[in-house]
Amino acid sequence: MSPGATGGLRRSRLLAWLLAAPLVLPALWLATSFAVPQPGVWPHLFDQVLPLAARNTLGLLVLLAVVAMVLGVGFAWASARYEWPGRRLFDWALVLPLALPAYVVAFVYVGLADYAGPMQTGWRALGLPPASFPELRSVPGAAAVLGLVLYPYVFLVVRAAFLRQGSAAMDAARSLGHGPLSAFFRAALPMARPAWAAGLSLVLLEALADFGAVSILGVDTFSTAIYKTWFGLYSLPAAAQLACGLIGLVVLVLLLERWTRGRASHASKQLMPPARRPLRGWRGWAVTAAAAATVGLGFVVPVAQLLAWSWEVRTSLPEVGEAALNTALLAAMAATIVLALALVFAVLSRRSGNDRGVRSAAFVAGLGYAVPGTVLAVGAMWLLVAAEGAAPWLGTLALSSSVLAVLLALTARFFRVGNETIDAAFLALRPSLLDSARLLGASPWQRLRRVVLPLLRPGLVAAGLLVLVEVVKELPATLMLRPFGWDTLAVKIHAYTSEGLWMQAAWPALWLCLIGLLPVWWLVRQQR
Question: What's the whole-model pTM score?
């Protein structure tokens, strides 16, 4: 390699790591919090907070894993291998719950399950004892609500794996005397292990990151414990120390996913998926009924109830114009920053010949996606407070109580979403097109502007759309870091639900649901 090429490679690595540093620092800086002991806080946390939070978090993860696997894998197998009434409709309808934030579904069902709500009213009308009504504000209730929203993560990836799997393994198992159910568990499910392990890890990471749904349902987890430590006990250092423990749980989930996947890979890919077997009679209609019930509970009922509540208060709808504007501005700024950073990383990677140092920097920068929003919020605040203490002139800018703090946390949280989408789009670029432009005398800037960006437009739109929707739905980071009085739609919903004002929360929630339908629409288009 020539000295000039070596110097260019070093510059690319240096720039990549300089860009990655601000995205990973909020999480890494949490470790410095242990230099600030909190002897007055930790005894209370050990006695009153952590035992319950640990039990609830572990129980929630276990129950949620069961719900997500049963629904996700079950519907994925039915969709990939069988033909039943309404199968084509439910192939995309089963993805619809992803459009709803979990905290929206949670407050809808809390409202429906109130003593005067339709669920308990119907229960008592049937002559059933009120005391035996299932308690929604519990760990099983939280697992059910989160499972209805998050199972599509498993459904999408496992369905794709089953479609690629072929029928050879199942045929071999059947020829050895196994029945359909036994052959599924002994052949098809183990071969799809990388897919369901990946989907399940996403579900568990989302559950660890969830703050809104569990707080509405009254279930104390590590996420809510961090929030209460900061805003209830007024101890940012202790909250940062707790956040380090939650990062340890996230790492444990990632290691468990890696161990579960092992060295397994998807079954050999084939050009055409196996022919679907028709499910006739009651079996086909049973699958249809189960799919309809799942979509109804996870999407139709919440949206219908939001519409009903909004209609009931139509003459006095809450004012959400300013919150909607703040939400749009925050989402646009975060999406712009993420897309710009992702483009720079993609260009650096191509210019350096996919250098390992550049790729490692991009990987490290994307680790924030696995870190809960509460953790990144505490990390960003802890980092900015330390920066203001080290450089007093920064204190005059009040960085720790500005929109910049929110943007730092959100960019670190969702950089990977935009980066992976744009990186995949870059893979579709044919080098011959760039070579032709170079031979025609186009400068690097002209090649980027006139060749690369037009070809990348679909990927850029998809990446921007995904990041925008994620930012709009994000609650804990925005709630914990926003300037005083600077509300978004998600914060408005949290404020109303904290006071039990379900009808007032319905109007901003409807706007969030409408925005959340955008990535679902994109996913459905990708599947066709």
Answer: 0.85
